[in-house]
Amino acid sequence: MGPGKPVRHRGRGPPAVSRLRIRREPRLAARRRVRAAPRTAMRPLPDDLRIRLEGLKICHANGITPRVLVPEQALEWLQNVDVRGGEVEYVDDPRERVLAFGRRFLDAPYDRAADIHSAPGRFSCSSFVKYALASVGIHMPKFAIDQSRRGTPLEGMVWEPGTLICWPSEFPIRDPDRMVGHIGFACGERRALHAGGRKHTVHEFAPKRPEAALFVNPFPAEPSALIHAPRGFETALDLVRSLQR
Fold first, then answer.
1. In CATH, what number is assigned to the domain containing residue 200?
2. How far is CA 201 from CA 58, 95, 111, 175, 205, in A?
């Protein structure tokens, strides 16, 4: 989503679901896994939903299963994903889950040239953001400037956990489009989690001059579900089409 009129995010909780099993994961909150429904004939996929699913890239990263966060309305076409070896999961609080995942890599070394394939051994600021959001199925671009445009810009300083903090560039650059030079996560009142800084590691800190930063909400407003996808698919639409066959 590109930048638009600044709004304040009012998050919504997950929908109520039935017949759920609880499985505990180390260092993460409980996963609520949805049992697959009996296979039934599918309705044709609405055009507006098809376009959305085509734009939802499945996250592939070292150490985590392929996954993608989809709108709840798409579950009608994904309820039998288990026949392909996948799984549907409701994430109670994606914001806290992103931070819990990111904190697993505290003190990991910072490398300005690192990318998503370097994780979790080392991180740049943007590859850390990309890797942490991939844990809840949100695909992000490689560079901080483009990550800052994936979400809803917020008014003022919003320290809600998981909000992106995008700092302006403070070094000479040739690319005139790179107004953002650093990025990280808010993790409480005037606290941030990022890769970089004087410590050259993943760490938490109290930002100086946060009023100069742009705060962006990268999470969808509507109820969503996390799809643990089988390998071999690039988008959520690819996966739906495979289940329609």
1. 3.90.1720.10
2. 28, 22, 8, 26, 11
